[in-house]
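Figure-free illustration: sequence to structure, shown twice.
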Amino acid sequence: MFNDRRKFIKTAGTGLLASLAIPSFANELISESVIYPSDISFEEDEEKYWKQIRQMFPLSKEKIYLNNGTMGPSPYPVIDTVHKYMRDADENGTYGGWEKTAEKLAEFVGASAEEIALTHNVTEGINIICWGMPLKKGDEVIMTTHEHVGGAAPWLNRAKLHGIVIKTFTPAATAAETLQRINDLINKKTRALAIPHIPCTQGQVMPAKEMCKLARDKGIFSFIDGAHGPGMLHINLHDMGCDFYASCSHKWMLGPKGTGFLYVRKELLDTMQTYSVGGSGLQDWNMNVTPLLFKGYAPDAKRYYYGTQNLALYKGVESAIDFINAIGLDRINKRILGFGKYFQDELLKLEGKIDMLTPTEDISRGSVIGFRVKSTPFGKVSEIAGENKIRIRGVAENGLNSNRASFHIYNNKSEIDKLVEVIKNIA
């Protein structure tokens, strides 16, 4: 089945392939299933460069995938790394080593390694913060009307069980107005902001740094749901000034599924109570003394995760970061945000037929665009796109009943044009 892919190109030296540090293991797997790009520089031929990057993804060429906001397919270097470490663990019983992933993640998102806890997804990080935050009955938490179920559920559950109060606002068309809406909800009972960096519904880039400054000035906690941030945008959590940030590696970072991280500002490590603890989470313990020894929690964010982790998956996270860095986040950011603007501009030409949900303000637009076709139910729009071999996402969350297209570096304008043509025909 791989006969048409045996003509892969391996290059040595200082080209793209070498910079991506593709491992030299599993030659049979690689030679039968992978076409690696030749040594074409970005400056030499930009479009050819991106076409070669596209060859590094196993995505079907028979379909157009415009749903990176749900899952970012991993490139071959990441897949190969996971394979290598899974094989090594099963052959040699290799154990441990995932701790180093926190160091690489910290560098990638502008934090300190001691502030990074390894998680399996964003929802896990949200639960750690939601339940660890010192809140009492009547305390208020500000959220949006555009939450993902994984972002909303933990807070709704705590409201049900502990009586906290959730206040919501709808993101506005501009960052300034959005910030004003948040400010208008803050009162003496407000204890925290729990807001997406980029809502999954329509991809609006929220004014995260300004939100966190507002929270700090008001003396309340700032928690950012960062599912869609790293890999799409430049992230520096220390500069952002947030107290907590939860993300995953399987969207814009293009990493293995079931991996993520939680950032907890070091000054708040002892403020955020941990309830689930285990290996690496304690400073010292002994069950064979009287009284039983428990000296307390680990001095860093390791206190928030525990037990055996999947080394292969976290090594895949490191490989994904290497992949992004080898290409350059500046290039990635420019390309995929350009796709977002291009798609939005094309839809806006269909005046009167489309509801545009994503702001047109440059600082509030990323590479996820939300829209409605006025004449057609959102489920039917997704269905027709699927019949044309185009994958987008229907957005039923919170009764929005809309559609969403999201783009990454494996996409191109011709694919976007095909979706636009489908939407024109529907409209």
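We now fold a second protein in the same way, so the two outputs can be compared directly.
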Amino acid sequence: MNKMDADKEDKELWRSFTLGNEQALSCVYCKYFNYLYNYGLKISGDEDFVKDCIQELFLHLWENKGKLGAVQYVKAYLLQALRKNVLTKLSRGKRRALIRKDLALSEPAITFSAEDLLIREEKGWQKSTQVAAALNDLTARQREAVYLRCYKDLSYEEIAVVMSINYQSVVNHIHEAFKALKNNEALKTVIKLSIVITGSACSVF
């Protein structure tokens, strides 16, 4: 199914759910649970906490179904709602021990590890470590934008929804992120024109 058809299907499910079809909401839950769960883990790192936040999100949606309008991008809407829920709870101190020192409570401090990356060359593990370090040198917003683009396969428009910023800001964050990666001297010493980030064809070089 292409993206256009998937978006159309999502909108039909969303409309059906807002009219009281519990099965439609269940379909949305099953379709996007893994997206939400993995994104939530990138923000907090606590599996049980993230699962609770997802459950609360869908309970809130069901209880307020009659008040919800049409949604342009269902996946982006859900990711944005989860993002807000997780950050709100963290800011209230319910899981304050999980907050990394560089985490601003207004935005997640997504980090990358070697396991997140796929380098299609020999000695891939060493190179993955180098790439992860370079990604983690980006600003928090650049890291999040790259993560949503390359790991969640979101369009720039959808990323703008999730991060609650305008389209041009998304373009700027991703442009500056890849510019920084291309100019990273440490990467140039270990990789020649072949970085591929798992989950998408996001070529850095």
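Summary for the second example: Confidence is low (pLDDT under 50) at residues 98-105, 192-201.
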